[in-house]
Amino acid sequence: MSAGAGSGVAARTVRTSRLDLVPLAVAHAEEMAGVLADPALHTFIGGAPLTAPALRARYERLTAGSPDPATVWGNWVVRLRTEDRLTGTVQATVTEDGRVAEVAWVIGVEWQGRGIAREAAEGLVALLVEHGARTIVAHVHPDHTASAAVAHAAGLTPTDRVEDGETRWERRVSD
Asked: How far apart are CA 82 and CA 27, in angstroms?
């Protein structure tokens, strides 16, 4: 997958059994500010919830794409179809001509414990592998058991590498 192909992946909607992973748009900021408003979401990642205007500015930067032409940013909102509500986000930073993708997920507190993060991460990883990614990476705080379970469900395994206090999880796909 070249950077151009990665751009196509980043613009694609992914449909799973219950979810639509919809490419991020600035228009999502208002609803997502509510989804991400609980300070508990920042227990392991630090920071604080963003206001709708701050989230709008962030989404403007993200949707503009990476300033590095060799890096593709893919950002999706997670829509639970039965409720027609946004529930969180997933993201991928694709490098090395599409061979490496670093992924992350955040699901609002109201929707946690329903398998949404697992399903969204599995859908994202499947998309990336389908388009040529051979190494999928996630960083998970060692005390964040729910996120570790999501990484495991998406086929990643923990490594002995720790970066910024988080364990590096990987999935390697053979050619």
From this structure: 21
The CATH number that applies at residue 24 is 3.40.630.30
The model's pTM:
0.93
- Domain of residue 148 covers 3-172
Contacts of residue 116, defined as CB under 8 A and 6 or more positions apart, other chains included, come to 18, 19, 78, 80, 87, 88, 107
State the SS3 of 90-143: EEEEEECCCCEEEEEEEECHHHCCCCHHHHHHHHHHHHHHHCCCCEEEEEECCC
Residues 6 or more apart in contact with residue 128 via CB below 8 angstroms: 9, 92, 94, 101, 103, 136
pLDDT, averaged per 10 consecutive residues of the chain (175 residues), comes to 56 95 98 97 92 98 95 97 98 95 97 97 96 97 97 98 96 90
Domain count along the chain: 1
What pLDDT score does 5 carry? 46
